[in-house]
Amino acid sequence: MNAPHPKSPGLAVGVSEDMIRELVHTFYARVRRDPLLGPIFNAKVADWDTHLATLCKFWSSVTLLTGTYKGRPMVVHAALPEIDGPHFARWLELFAETAREVCPLAAAELFVDRSQRIAQSLQQGIEIHRSLKAELVAGAP
Question: Which of 22, 70, 101, 122 counts the highest number of beta carbons within 10 A?
Fold first, then answer.
């Protein structure tokens, strides 16, 4: 694990790798049981241990600026035609509930803020990706 950047927003509110791990693992245990989200995640994630480790790296990079995450979340999410607005809304709702239960208030609010920004970016990117794909299909002979 890379050390947190000294000016990371997470350090200022007490985020630690242990807190990230607890949040990610608690949240995705709930996602797996959720009637709306569970079927999608359970069908797509073959190795939960690896997926959770990747998500911990993602949140470490987002909140502690460790740079440990090297993935491309836009590409992954854009390839899932079954996700749309209600899925994002439920994910955000469940994530906020979990963050506020698991983390101290200031840390929870950082996680919630970042999750909302990330979800907005993903939704916009997916919309653009799907529009371009539809245009290409429509224009194909």
Answer: 122
Under a CB-based contact definition with an 8 Å cutoff, are residues 124 and 132 in contact? no
Q: What is the DSSP letter of 137?
A: H
Q: Tens digit of pLDDT for each residue in 79-104?
A: 777 788 899 999 999 999 999 999 99
Structure tokens at 106: 């200031």
R_g of the chain computed on alpha carbons: 16
Q: State the Cα–Cα distance between residues 54 and 43, nearest whole angstrom.
A: 18
SS3 call for 45: coil
Q: Which of 28, 11, 29 is nearest to 106 (CA)?
A: 11
Q: Shortest CA distance to 101 belongs to which of 45, 19, 10?
A: 19
Instruction: Kindly compute the dihedral angle of the four CA atoms of residues 49, 11, 104, 32, in this order, to the nearest 10 degrees.
Output: -20
With contact defined as beta carbons under 8 Å apart, do 78 and 130 qualify? yes
> Quick one: tokens of 92?
């955000």
CA distances from 43 to 12, 22, 103 (A): 37, 23, 29
Q: What domains are defined for the chain?
A: 14-139 (1.10.490.10)
Give the predicted TM-score (pTM) of the model. 0.89
